[in-house]
Design brief:
Blueprint lengths: L2 H12 L1 E6 L16 E2 L2 E2 H11 L5 E5 L3 H8 L4 E4 L6 H6 L2 H5 L5 E6 L7 H14 L3 E7 L8 E4 L4 E5 L6 H4 L3 E10 H9 L14 H8 L4 E5 L12 H21 L3 E2 L6 E2 L4 E2 L4 E2 L4 E3 L3 E2 L4 E2 L4 E3 L2 E2 L4 E2 L2 E4 L2 E2 L4 E2 L3 E3 L4 E2 L4 E2 L3 E4 L2 E2 L4 E2 L3 E4 L1 E3 L4 E2 L4 E3 L9 E3 L4 E2 L4 E3 L2 E3 L4 E2 L4 E2 L8 E2 L11 H10 L8
Parallel strand pairs: 1-4, 1-6, 4-5, 7-11, 12-15, 13-16, 14-17, 15-18, 16-19, 17-20, 18-21, 19-22, 20-23, 21-24, 22-25, 23-26, 24-27, 25-28, 26-29, 27-30, 28-31, 29-32, 30-33, 32-35, 33-36, 34-37, 35-38, 36-39, 37-40, 39-41
Antiparallel strand pairs: 2-3, 6-10, 7-10, 8-9
This protein binds uridine-diphosphate-N-acetylglucosamine (UD1) and calcium ion.
Uridine-diphosphate-N-acetylglucosamine (UD1) binds next to β1, α4 and β10.
Length: 477
């Protein structure tokens, strides 16, 4: 590492983040904290945390308030939390983190809103550059909006920034200003600790405004700056369900555009929702009604959809998935699945497999080029290569107490409506006769038949239904 990199590294260890997430969002009518509401399947707070991580900031402290247990559960002890028991404003929220900041007062502190999901690592880093280059006590991240309504306005001076005034406290002239406060700031930590002591509640809302730190810093002869970003989305937050839908739409299009740049093909985007962390190879087509979630990875030249839900799966190249739901599984190259197939967690579908309609696979390995064409349940099974499942096969994996496994060798041919009562093993090349219930292991190359002799009772229905249905034959015996 070169010297400046060592310095940067030290800086990162010293630098801290305070994420304000005390909000309730009463207009959402949600029983969870507002920052836990999801955009593209990830809580807004998760977006903000990920932006910090992408900027190499890991000393994160989240200020909680309403129903803090939800946030604690989500963070799972990965990051610190402090509780703001009373909601007295953004300045008051940061005050709750003072004990944490005091442990480490040498570096800088980034303050972010936990309900503004589109803050990004580049903006964070560029604002940091400006903050440190100018030697500011505080640097606020701003954006220029066509409709600045509701946001704090940036009052500029000749040398930089003079103050931030809230919508509710602003004069008509100040409300014309289009440059707004994103709610994100870099502070020199030692200065932040001093500035917080100077905040008061003397404003229209009777709150401790974090925004007042700008004016205060200047009064105290410290430097304040503003980093104006082109990415106006960083200011977007949500107060209503309609806003939240808008955030989802913005995020959805950002993700779709990224994939199109990577060569992913869409002929129509109706109902297509792709999570922010999903990866897709070039020349793959995603068809309408498809949701790709979590850490899903799709290879190149595949066709996914219409109407698939794929969550946390790794899917190979040249795969065709049509009306498939798949979770926590691996689907290798050149597999064809669907329509109406459920691949449940911990399944591994090897290359060249074909799975047809109304099939469920759970916690199983399906060997190369095996075919499961229709109406079949394969659960807790290890299936070899080139096996053929007849229609209506069931692996009977649950005995009411525990789950047992089926082992099916290469090249087995399983007759229609076979029940395989686990634990049971079919050797390689074994056959089962249609309708058999297999309760014992079947050796290699053997045929298992389990059927009673067929009895045929002549004239049965005629005797039973007589004149009712077959008047023309009523005189037959
Ligand atoms: C704040 C800014 C405003 C800025 C806007 C950007 C102030 C006084 N105003 O306004 O200039 O344009 O953000 O969205 O800071 N929070 C707490 N505890 C509190 C109050 C807020 O944790 O007591 C959290 C909220 O959950 C939210 C964030 O702080 O994540 C911002 O709070 P919010 O009420 O949305 O601030 P605004 O009034 O919109
Ligand atoms: Ca807000």
């Amino acid at each position: 590492m070169r010297q400046h990199e060592v310095l940067q590294e030290e800086q990162r260890i010293m630098d801290q983040v305070v994420i304000l997430a005390g909000g309730h969002g009463s207009r959402m009518k949600a029983a969870i904290p507002k920052p836990m509401l999801e955009v593209l399947g990830v809580p807004m707070l998760g977006w903000v945390v990920q932006a910090c991580e992408a900027a190499d900031l890991r000393n994160i402290c989240v200020v909680t308030g309403y129903k803090s247990q939800f946030i604690e559960h989500y963070l799972n002890n990965k990051y610190k939390t402090v509780l703001q028991a009373e909601r007295l404003g953004t300045g008051h929220a940061v005050m709750q983190a003072v004990p944490v900041l005091e442990e480490n007062p040498d570096g800088n502190t980034l303050v972010l809103c936990g309900d503004a999901p589109f803050m990004d690592s580049e903006t964070i880093q560029q604002a940091y550059q400006l903050h440190t280059a100018q030697g500011n006590a505080v640097t606020v991240i701003t954006a220029k909006l066509d409709n600045p309504f509701g946001y704090g306005r940036i009052l500029r001076s000749e040398t930089g920034i003079a103050a931030i005034v809230e919508e509710k406290d602003a004069t008509d002239a100040q409300r014309q200003i289009q440059e707004v406060n994103s709610g994100a700031y870099w502070f020199r930590t030692a200065d932040l600790l001093t500035l917080l002591k100077g905040l008061s509640q003397s404003n229209v809302q009777g709150e401790y405004y974090l925004t007042d730190t700008i004016g205060l810093a200047l009064e105290q002869g410290k430097k304040a700056g503003a980093y104006l970003t082109d990415n106006t989305d960083v200011v977007l937050g949500a107060n209503t369900r309609k806003d939240l839908l808008h955030l989802n739409e913005v995020a959805r299009w950002k993700v779709l555009e990224k994939h199109m740049e990577n060569g992913v093909n869409f002929i129509n985007t109706d109902g297509i929702i792709i999570g922010k962390d999903v990866e897709i190879g070039a020349e793959t087509t995603i068809l309408p009604g498809t949701q790709l979630k979590g850490r899903t990875k799709i290879g190149a030249r595949s066709t996914i959809g219409p109407n698939c839900v794929i969550e946390n799966c790794v899917v190979g190249e040249y795969v065709i998935l049509n009306y498939v739901q798949a979770y926590e599984s691996v689907i290798e190259d050149s597999v064809k699945i669907g329509p109406f197939v459920h691949i449940r967690p911990n399944s591994h579908i090897r290359s060249g497999v074909k799975i047809g309609d109304f099939v469920e696979v759970k916690n199983s390995v399906i060997g190369e080029s095996t075919a499961i064409a229709h109406l079949t349940y394969v659960g807790d099974s290890d299936v070899g290569k080139k096996v053929n499942f007849g229609c209506g096969t069931v692996t009977v994996n649950y005995d009411g107490i525990k789950k047992n496994r089926c082992v099916i060798g290469d090249n087995c041919f399983i007759g229609c409506n076979t029940n395989l009562i686990a634990p049971v093993k079919l050797g390689k090349g074994a056959y089962t006769a249609a309708g058999s219930t297999v309760t014992k292991d079947v050796p290699d190359y053997a045929l298992a038949v389990e059927r009673a002799d067929l009895k045929v009772k002549e004239g049965y229905s005629l005797k039973k239904l007589k004149s009712k249905l077959f008047p023309e034959d009523k005189n037959k015996n």
